[in-house]
Amino acid sequence: MKKMTSQEVRQMFLDFFQSKGHTIEPSVSLVPVNDPTLLWINSGVATLKKYFDGSVIPENPRITNAQKAIRTNDIENVGKTARHHTMFEMLGNFSIGDYFRTEAIAWGFELLTSPEWFDFPAEKLYMTYYPDDKDSYNRWIEVGVKPDHLIPIEDNFWEIGAGPSGPDTEIFFDRGEAFDPENIGIKLVAEDIENDRYIEIWNIVLSQFNADPSVPRSEYKELPHKNIDTGMGLERMVAVIQGAHTNFETDLFMPIIRQIEQLSGKTYDPYGDNMSFKVIADHIRSLSFAIGDGALPGNEGRGYVLRRLLRRAVMHGRKLGINDTFLYKLVKIVGEIMASYYPEVLEKRDFIEKIVKREEETFARTIDAGSKMFDEVIAKLKADNKTTLAGSDIFKLYDTYGFPVELTEELAEDAGFSIDHAGFEAAMTAQQERARAAVVKGGSMNKQSEVLTALQDSSAFSYTEKHLSSELIAIVQDDKRVKTAKGQAQVIFAQTPFYAEMGGQVADHGVIKDAAGDVVANVTDVQKAPNGQPLHAVEILTELFEGETYTLAIDEKRRNGIIKNHTATHLLHAALHNVLGNHATQAGSLNEVDFLRFDFTHFAAVTADELSEIERQVNEEIWHAIDVLTVETDVATAKEMGAMALFGEKYGKVVRVVTIGDYSIELCGGTHVANTSEIGLFKIVKEEGIGSGTRRILALTGQKAFEAFKEQEDILKHVQALVKSPQAAQTVAKVENLQLELKTAQKEIESLSAKMASAQSDEIFKNVQTANGTSFIAAKVTANDAGALRNLADIWKQKNSSDILVLAAQIGEKANLLVASNTKTRKAGDLVKALAPFIDGRGGGKPDLAMAGGTKPAGIAELLAHVGENL
């Protein structure tokens, strides 16, 4: 077996499959593009779903990749096990309806055992297979695997709901008896016993059925195009090749661990208690790559995952004695380790470090808050003479403040308390179930359409024509190809002026006319067929016939609105870079007829001044009347030209480069105006956050932008009239003066309320009653607002007139209730809840002060009469 670096292992895998006719697809962003079913890219095949379900046919049906991935279902296991990671690399080879079991198994065995490649000893390899999959068993025998190295496993069948599924066969490497002290042997694999001897290094999924949950597995139908999907974990493979005790003692992690040693002054022991080193090394990799791909720490979704990873790493840093911000210092070494295949971490190093450091500093303040909570919990336990820290409190410290349970346990034991492990585990399990329920929805692939997949007829889209004559070459109705159709159908023409929805630009609509010029069908949508042809969804008014020539005419008014908005998104993207920074990259867009929507990565709300400057820059480029030029070239040349490519998107051999002067240059397959002046006007109408680290701008162009400005002008004129401002320019000053007058009047009202409260208090506070040993005052008072009730409560506290104060007032058509308490035996919040029903209300508050509102002022007298019996 060859000794290799991680870089060499990755490259050898890709080189092998490239030699077998595979195209190497680059690793894409960890943030899924156009796939709402995934929180993260979590496997090598996740980016290829469109090929497997048949919605897109790849140029080459043989694909190989090294794909970075994130899985965070069980973060708690990182550092505890030898091979658990949140971010990992999956090496894979894929066949989309091309080769199948025969080649996949033979090539897997060749790559692993051939002296030309990895050169593993064949006797060290064991394979599992699905018991009913005799074909795989026989194929392994044919390539030279001994029968006693083949283990049937009932779970070796891959499926996620409806869609592509099939048996899988796994490959394990035997690290020897040194990792099997009880000499259990291959039974460890057969009975799925956790162990360090037999390491799974590769899984070959034979996707050959359309899974149908309504029938037994034995009745699944064969896929029209069978596929191969494999996965080899790079970290595990490198650990085996480098003879590492765990994945962490490889060149993928050890440089990070060495840096942590320097920062902490502690030494990493591969065989000792080194969980904190592993957690930090793993988590900083995930943070560096995810932030580099546009995800940012936050309170929900991906952001919550990153925040949790960072806080967990910081707390483990503290366990190593690192109390200052330090994680950001590890970004550089992560980038250097991965630079040969993932240069983006070093390219975005400054931005990643900035975000990580800022989040660390924020968490430092949160840790102080968590420590305060811990102290309060301990103080309460002491006061109540309890000796155990509740599981719910441990979980809150863990989930809200990032305190690892081990740290909480240490602090509790130092204070002389034990902890409720079972309660913590129950709370943790409940959270994990909620997380899985939120993530695992809709994760299966779509079913393949054999009819659409089989459509090979070529069809060309014309960027220049608005209407043209073209032959109808295919009709699909009810998932069947037909020669003629009425009603709803999908059709393909030899040439079309209709743009198929793509890249955020919505599809063209329009009509289909016959030779006489009569409209015979309406085009309601256009999508790309699996082989790339524009597939028109049509409502047929009469009848359509395959082979006939028709006139296709788009709705030009609709197209004109769309292209104004599309070109404006290019200008907006460039303006965001100029004003906010290069990290503000596109995370999604929608170019509609009446508006544009643009999502982008950014770590804070865009300020009013920034929005104003963005809007100004876009309009300036419109007024400069710049020609919008489009050229076709290859991706490499386009990037040399400086074209901005959307990270995560895949581009063909020929790409279109859209250039707007020296202001914007992007790869784009959409339609655009010929000159920026055609956009007319650009107006931002809304900026908002839509998720952690992702912002959204809604904007208008042309007539719609003018109408938005006109609406604002009308509002200004209305305000001008209300404040009686003779000139529009004086309106702001008039409003400011009115605000000043209002504040002055409010202060006078507050002063009068205080005087009125003081006047009432002398009489009210004389009437002190007693019930169950508690003194109380209960009275109906005159008050203009709730503030007046609070003023009376303040005076009552100063005079210390009784244990309890209950005040009720009718304010307008509503009843208001205030309860104040000077005693621990009766909390104000509890008493207000008991009394509020008398006025058909509800309320709450703190132990010393609570308030309620109700809709039944007539109940005030009855409420006051029942105060004593509620004490």
Q: Which secondary structure elements does this structure contain, and how are they paired or packed?
A:
Layout (H helix, E strand, L loop, with lengths): L5 H14 L3 E3 L23 H4 L9 E9 L16 E10 L4 H13 L11 E5 L4 H10 L6 E3 L4 E2 L4 E12 L12 H4 L7 E14 L9 E13 H8 L12 H11 L10 H18 L8 H19 L11 H8 L5 H4 L1 H35 L4 E2 L1 H11 L3 H10 L3 E2 L1 H19 L10 H5 L5 E2 L5 E11 L2 E3 L1 E10 L1 E2 L13 E4 L5 E10 L5 E12 L3 E6 L1 H25 L5 E6 L4 E6 L6 H16 L4 E6 L1 H6 L14 E6 L3 E4 L14 E10 L2 E8 H21 L8 H34 L4 E3 L2 E7 L5 H14 L4 E8 L2 E8 L6 H8 L5 E5 L3 E6 L5 H6 L6
Parallel strand pairs: 1-2, 4-5, 10-11, 12-16, 29-30
Antiparallel strand pairs: 2-3, 3-9, 4-7, 6-7, 7-8, 8-9, 13-14, 13-15, 13-20, 15-19, 17-18, 17-20, 18-19, 21-22, 22-27, 23-24, 24-25, 26-27, 28-29, 30-31, 31-33, 32-33
Question: Please, could you describe this protein's structure?
Answer:
The protein is α+β, with helices and mostly antiparallel strands. It has five domains: 6-246, Bira Bifunctional Protein, Domain 2 (BirA Bifunctional Protein, domain 2, 2-Layer Sandwich); 254-439; 458-554, Elongation Factor Tu (Ef-tu), domain 3; 559-713, Threonyl-tRNA Synthetase, Chain A, domain 2, CATH 3.30.980; 760-870, Roll (Diaminopimelate Epimerase, Chain A, domain 1), CATH 3.10.310. Helix content is 37%, strand content 25%. The protein has 24 helices and 33 strands. Strands 1, 2, 3, 4, 5, 6, 7, 8 and 9 form a nine-stranded mixed sheet that branches. A hairpin with a 5-residue loop joins strand 18 and strand 19. Helix 7 crosses helix 8 and helix 8 packs across helix 12. The longest helix is centred in the middle third of the chain and has 35 residues, at 349-383. The radius of gyration is 34 Å and the shape is globular. The chain starts with 5 loop residues before the first helix and ends in a 6-residue tail after the last helix. Residues 437-444 have low confidence and may be disordered. Residues 4-711 form the Alanyl-transfer RNA synthetases family profile domain. One of its GO terms (molecular function) is catalytic activity, acting on a protein. Belongs to the class-II aminoacyl-tRNA synthetase family. Zn(2+) binds at residues 566, 570, 668, 672. It catalyses: tRNA(Ala) + L-alanine + ATP = L-alanyl-tRNA(Ala) + AMP + diphosphate.
